[in-house]
Write a structure and sequence with these properties.
homodimer, 319 residues, mainly alpha, Farnesyl Diphosphate Synthase, two-stranded antiparallel sheet, 1% strand
């Protein structure tokens, strides 16, 4: 994802903008925000935003501000997620609340949100602000929904897609839809690319949830089985339960509800032997194919090709 | 503050708007937000916003949305404050993280923020959105500044005013300045009322910090000495240290840095006997007089009178 050479200048500008814009009169706010902003990350949302605008021939000056606002929104949710999930590691480094404290995580997360909103508020077109504020609302709904489902013993496929739709796909969608608005795309193009980006977000999250079980720890930058340990039911579990007999189902549910990591090797064997991993890959594949179909609406360009490349790359990504 | 009869209709509309607008497809988000939104509160920021707009002859339709956005911003910061401060009680009821959990506090706080931003994004004039997003940023800076000062043994008057300026006065200011923008007030009126509202916020917070030492627990809805217990240095302590001899200063600083409540009665005696309480009341009085001067720019009306009444009422408020 980092090697998108055709928008290298824009991505470099974005990095500078992110680092400069979180500067504050309060040194601690600058220090922590720059720590998290500079710790890498794939910048997939800004990349989608920039590529879409370029594919739609946008020539204006608001692209960096818009994509920086989107990345800061995402960053703020990560900081709060890490507090809530008690995550130790983010992007291969100590998470904010490990390096500082929970209080720092909550308050600097709010600071980064406020910086995102300042960038949003500076955008000329009000429709962009509305789109992003609606997206922010959906994301926070997704977080609350996920929290409310944690206590629930039976968790359906439908609920899984509701959570990841809000938590992940909404901001993928907003990244692309705002690029369409900025580029004054017609409604037909906008609707196609809205479906493209929403489905891409879904496919992206499915892959993320898959990597939590079958990824390489050094690649994903966090411990395997973290979702399981947090009692988060994701698609590999949903599919494994569907494909298991009564006894196996009980084993999975019991260990999950107790967040029992002692039997994690056995759990993992059970998930793999059930065929759940292959089934999840099929799910992902289906969403990716829908994405590729929707991209057909774009006229040929190297930016379109890059969007296709990102979409296909999802299927092979291991971090 | 609740008995502002001349804007009773608007305040009733505000209550309905607040309660309805935090409704969500996610039942838990609705439940917790309505719990906190319906638990009272003085609504002083919306009251200032509404009275200012009325005093400036505003007749449009955006006043309830604007003042609801402001109250929701305030509510979101309260929810996160309670998580960070581990507060047990808010407005006489269990705080969100006591009734639910820290995670609920963080995520529902974000949800309420997002609702505030949705309301803001819907306002016609972009300058309103910019003003409110800048204010949100200052508030979060104030929170981080306060956190960074907690560890500091020497805390100056200047730092105290920087914290409360950002944490409290900024949103008082935004409540009144946005009302001026909405009412198309001229720049001179806007600047006067900006000073009025900022100083009112300062006076309000000074009184709040005073009540933490000399208030009545049943009136303020929380335990006395809470700031002290959290290691928060507020004006009563700043003044008491100024007015104490070396030995007393050491006693105050030692107990504060250890957050030692066993000697709180002795601490309180020391603060009172030093003359700090009277000195703080003088500080407050000075800000209130400045507020009253700035209000002179308004032409006579019952709304102006109400603003004067609120300002004077601050000096006697005990909750």
């Amino acid at each position: 994802m980092n090697s998108i050479e055709i928008i290298k200048d824009e991505l470099d500008e974005l990095e500078t903008k992110l680092k400069e814009f979180v500067r504050s009169d309060i040194p601690l706010a600058t220090e922590i925000s720059q720590y998290i902003v500079s710790s890498g990350g794939k910048r997939i949302r800004p990349t989608l935003c920039i590529l879409t605008a370029k594919a739609l021939f946008y020539k204006g000056k608001e692209l960096i501000d818009l994509s920086a606002a989107i990345e800061l929104l995402h960053t703020a949710t990560l900081i709060h997620d890490d507090v809530v999930d008690e995550s130790l590691v983010r992007r291969g480094k100590d998470s904010v609340q490990v390096r500082w404290s929970d209080a720092h995580g909550v308050l600097v997360g709010d600071f980064v949100y406020s910086k995102a909103f300042q960038l949003m508020a500076g955008l000329k077109e009000k429709r962009l602000i509305e789109e992003l504020s609606n997206s922010t609302n959906k994301i926070s709904e997704g977080e609350v929904l996920q929290l409310s489902l944690k206590a629930k013993p039976n968790f359906s496929e439908k609920e899984y897609f509701e959570v990841i739709g809000r938590k992940t796909a909404e901001l993928f969608k907003a990244s692309v839809v705002t690029a369409c608005i900025l580029s004054k795309a017609n409604e037909k193009v906008l609707k196609s690319l809205e479906r493209f980006s929403y489905n891409l977000g879904i496919a992206f999250q499915i892959r993320d949830d898959l990597l939590d079980y079958v990824g390489k720890e050094d690649k994903i930058g966090k411990k395997l089985g973290k979702d399981f340990e947090e009692g988060k039911i994701t698609l590999p579990i949903v599919r494994a339960i569907e494909l298991s007999n009564e006894e196996e189902e009980k084993f999975l549910k019991d260990n999950l509800s107790e967040r029992n990591m002692k039997n994690f090797d056995q759990t993992l064997d059970l998930i793999i032997n059930s065929g759940a991993i292959d089934k999840v890959k099929e799910d992902e594949d289906r969403f990716v194919r829908e994405c590729l179909n929707e991209l057909e609406i774009l006229s040929p360009s190297k930016f379109k090709d890059a969007l296709i490349g990102i979409t296909k790359g999802l299927l092979n990504r291991n971090s």
